[in-house]
Amino acid sequence: MFRDMYCTRCGSTAMPKEGLAGGFFFELFLWGLFVVQGAFFGGNGLWILLLVVAAAYSGWRHSTKRRICPKCGSSDIIPVDSPKARQSRTDSDCASRDVHSGENGAAAM
Ligand SMILES: [Zn+2]
């Protein structure tokens, strides 16, 4: 369960999507090299090295799940209740809020 996040790039407030860091095809490529090396050249030093590299890359990629904006895909998202998000949202809401406070002020007088 995620809370809504504020996107500093497109200014939308939405439930973030989860994305993996790095590239899927690069990970596939590393594992492909490992398989090819093992199948055609046997388990030599390079094969072990490829295993380590592929495993490390996969591990890094899957451990660094990041949350991204569902609208623009940016990872520059911050919690809605953070001061910076509040500031940005207040700025954009300012116009409509001023109208309401103006009406209230007029009614009170
Ligand atoms: Zn966005």
Structural features:
single chain; 109 residues; alpha+beta; three-stranded antiparallel β-sheet; 5 strands; rod-shaped; binds zinc ion
Write a concise synopsis of the structure shown.
This protein is α+β, with helices and mostly antiparallel strands and 109 residues long. Helix content is 58%, strand content 15%. A hairpin with a 5-residue loop joins strand 1 and strand 2.
Can you describe this structure?
- By secondary structure, this protein is an alpha+beta fold.
- It has one domain (5-108).
- The chain is 58% helix and 15% strand.
- It has helices spanning 24-41, 45-63, 83-108, and strands at 5-7, 13-14, 17-20, 65-68, 77-79.
- The strands form 2 sheets. The chain has a 3-stranded antiparallel β-sheet with strand order 2-1-5, with no helix packed on it. Strands 3-4 form a two-stranded antiparallel sheet.
- Helix 1 (24-41) packs antiparallel against helix 2 (45-63).
- The chain is rod-shaped.
- Bound molecules: zinc ion.
